[in-house]
Amino acid sequence: MEMAYYPGCTLKTNAKSFEDSAIKAFRHIGIELKELEKWYCCGTVYSIAQDNLMYRLASIRNLIRAKEEGFDKLVTLCSICYNTLKQANLMARNDAESMSKINAFMDEEPDYGGEVEVIHPLQILKERMWEIRSMVKKPLNKKYAAYYGCLLLRPAEVSIDEHENPRIMEELIEALGGEAVNFPLKNECCGSYNVVANREAVIEANYRIITNARKNGADVIVTSCPLCYFNLKDMQRVVKKFYPDFVELPVQYFTELMVEAFEVKQ
Q1: Alpha carbon distance 81, 225 (integer Å)
Q2: What is the tens place of the pLDDT at every residue in 101-110?
Q3: What is the pLDDT of residue 266?
């Protein structure tokens, strides 16, 4: 089965391992992620200003590209891309006045009205857990803390699962032979873009989140967001300078766990 795939910018640079492992893992379960022939940056975050329509043009253009290629579903891995595209698509479906202005402005583009469904890969996997279990060759046999962060769950209308207590990643971990630990901070913010202007906030969040995961028995933190990955993994060496008692913890993408458990050839 072929599905339209929107990579976004980071999956082609700092998060290339996320894309590579996803393509391999999904191909292994019979899904070919077909990258859009032409795509643009999604805009990075969805503007909360209701009248900031210009900021939503890029997302709408990406959805138009998927529609032009004949797809009614668009898959994206990055949590930020997912949230931005999903909210733009909801606007297209529910706000006729705004979409009338956008369609009029983009007069060289075909009109768009929300015909494409934006989905996250974890939503696909939720429907195939029985199949995933049967494909495991090397059970993970570790304890994992599923970390969702903000943008897979907020606002509630775009959440991939119950937004206060999601379980999709835990179900995947268990299907792959791992143990999902109780992790109260799984939907806490990692500090997001504060890593640029307010690193202290990210250092504090990193210390709190990783220490909590370790106290709850986790050997690894699992995520789906390249920015969360950076803030939780790459910032650990900085956190150690501020908190001498801090003990580091590995961070992986959920797709890397799939490749490992399936023993997919690199």
Answers
A1: 9
A2: 999 999 999 9
A3: 61
Residue 149 · residue 187 · CB < 8 Å:
yes
The CA distances from residue 227 to 11, 223, 233, in Å, are 11, 10, 10
Cβ–Cβ < 8 Å for 190, 149: yes
Give the number of other Cβ atoms within 10 Å of residue 110's Cβ. 9
Say how far apart CA 39 and CA 42 lie, in whole Å.
Answer: 9
**Using CB atoms within 10 A of its CB, is residue 19 exposed (0-12), middle (13-18) or buried (19+)?**
buried
pLDDT score recorded for residue 84: 97
Q: Which two tokens stand for residue 189?
A: 């913010």
% residues pLDDT > 70 (the chain): 100
Domains annotated for the chain, with CATH where assigned, are: 2-119 (1.20.1050.140), 137-262 (3.40.50.11810)
pLDDT digit string (tens) for 138-193?
999 999 999 999 999 999 999 999 988 999 999 999 999 999 999 999 999 999 97
Round to the nearest angstrom and report the end-to-end CA distance of the chain: 22
Take residue 67 and report the two structure tokens written for it.
């529609």
| Sign of the Cα pseudo-torsion (199, 200, 206, 207, in order) | positive
Structure tokens at 13: 């640079």
Residues counted in the chain: 266
Question: What backbone phi and psi angles, to 5 degrees, belong to 146?
Answer: -80, 120
Contact 231, 209 (CB under 8 A): no
Residues 6+ apart with CB under 8 A from 255: 18, 21, 22, 24, 25, 26, 77, 121
Verdict on whether the full-model pTM lies above 0.90: yes
